[in-house]
Design a protein that fits this description.
Number of helices: 12
Structural class: alpha/beta
Radius of gyration: 21 Å
Strand content: 25-35%
Number of domains: 2
Largest sheet: 4 strands, mixed
Number of strands: 24
CATH architecture of the largest domain: Alpha-beta prism
Helix content: 25-40%
CATH class of the largest domain: Alpha Beta
Strand order of the largest sheet: 22-23-1-24
CATH superfamily of the largest domain: Enolpyruvate transferase domain
Distance between the termini: 5 Å
Length: 427
């Protein structure tokens, strides 16, 4: 699909997409906690659907209700034979569900597609055998085959590649009711995502560990209060997806974004911090934010703990009145694309001036871009960032492989259109 975006003025209100970070964690927690969960306002992105498919493979019964909510009935992991699981292109589902699935003593075969096949999984080779899991990978990549059951014990892991591996272990240890064991972590990145994991576990009544300053997570008891047999859980709005709407409004109009929790634990809530640095006029209310078009001040921001903000922040910084610097480029190597390199290459096609210096993406701002033909490189966030840049380009921006948005925000282009953006799609 090719998305063509022309210079536009936006106005109106839109509901933010649902958080796939929250949705996928809720699916895992519902599986492990057992009983019946009514998942309100569930996400429908490809990564969300991948997580639903995984928990069904592991024994959960999922029904879509007339209201649009999902009913998840579970007796815990219920696998009685060897099974194959496909995580699609979801890095979180893969890294979270491998330790969870390893709680069973059956043979499990996990695969994926697209860029996930190129993302390293050496972590599992190094860690899971320490927990009693026999495992085989494709030289550190998918597919992965393994057999448990995983036996929680005190271990030390490297947290510098992704916090998602730790999320999987925390979920698995909680699901196994681990006691008197700790997970020690060196160099943990993306700490807010661990806060989110622990919060979801707590809301589902799973045992949660004592967090010793993100260096150690100590499991001390078998349960965290009473675990209800029935529960409801609402999937909150996605600050990752909403960040593109924030930037779009700052560039091209006045927009109200509804369905966002200003007190969210999501890492990408930090878009509000950047908005303040860039002197964007934003009004934060109980369940929405209002963003107005403004002159953008250059900014410096460390995105090491929220690397998914790099694409929208790049789209913002290329129109800033000066030079901006975003730190943490090293976190972008193993995303759906090598995002740091991709951002430089694709935005340069539009006439922007970007460069990578050490661990920083340096962006020279300008009033407008030229427009042109670019590619998402099959990366959903790259596709959205380039499309947003088209809202203030002198000529149309044509984004090839724009269907990549389905991974996290399938309604992105229709939402832009509803706000008045000139967007046409060619299949």
């Amino acid at each position: 699909m090719i998305a063509t975006v022309c210079s536009s003025t936006l106005s109106g209100s839109i509901k933010a997409p649902r958080s796939k970070s929250v949705m996928q964690r809720a699916c895992a927690a519902a599986l492990l906690a057992g009983g019946e969960t009514c998942l309100l306002d569930p996400g429908t992105a490809e990564d969300d659907l991948a997580a639903v498919a995984v928990i069904q493979s592991l024994g959960a019964h999922v029904t879509k209700l007339e209201s649009g909510s999902l009913s998840i009935k579970s007796k815990g992991i219920a696998v009685s034979k060897a099974i194959a699981i496909n995580c699609g292109e979801s890095g979180l589902s893969l890294r979270m569900f491998v330790p969870i699935a390893a709680l069973t003593a059956e043979n499990i075969h996990i695969n994926g597609k697209g860029s996930l096949l190129k993302r390293p999984q050496h972590f599992f080779e190094e860690v899971l055998p320490l927990l009693g899991v026999a495992l085989k990978t494709n030289n550190g990549y998918l597919p992965i085959s393994f057999m448990g059951p995983l036996q929680p014990t005190t271990i030390t892991i490297d947290g510098s590649l992704s916090s998602q591996f730790l999320t999987g272990l925390l979920m698995a240890y909680g699901g196994a009711a681990a006691t008197a064991v700790s997970i020690h972590v060196n160099g943990l990145v993306s700490k807010p995502y661990i806060d989110l994991t622990l919060s979801v576990m707590e809301q589902f009544g799973l045992p949660i560990p004592v967090n010793h300053n993100y260096c150690s997570f100590e499991f001390t008891s078998k349960k965290n209060g009473d675990r209800p047999l029935e529960r409801t859980f609402t999937v909150e709005g996605d600050w990752s997806g909403a960040s593109f709407l924030v930037v779009a409004a700052a560039l091209s109009g006045d927009v109200t974004i509804e369905g966002l929790n200003a007190d969210s634990l999501q890492a990408d809530r930090q878009i509000l911090t950047v908005a303040e640095l860039a002197q964007l006029p934003i009004l934060i209310q109980k369940n929405c934010i209002k963003v107005h078009q403004a002159t953008i001040s250059p900014f410096e921001f460390d995105a090491t703990d929220c690397p998914d903000l790099f694409p929208p922040l790049t789209a913002l910084a290329v129109f800033a009145n000066g030079i901006s610097c975003i730190k943490g480029v090293g976190r972008l190597t193993h995303k759906e694309s090598n995002r740091g390199v991709t951002l430089v290459e694709e935005f340069s096609k539009l006439g922007a001036l970007l460069e990578i210096k050490n661990d920083c993406l340096v962006i020279h701002g300008q009033h407008q871009l030229n427009g042109g033909i670019v590619s998402s490189c099959h990366d959903h966030r790259i596709a959205m960032a380039l499309a947003v840049a088209g809202l203030r380009s002198t000529q149309p921006v044509q984004v090839e492989n724009a269907e990549a948005i389905g991974k996290s925000y399938p309604s992105f282009f229709s939402h832009l259109q509803s706000l008045g953006a000139s967007v046409s799609l060619t299949y």
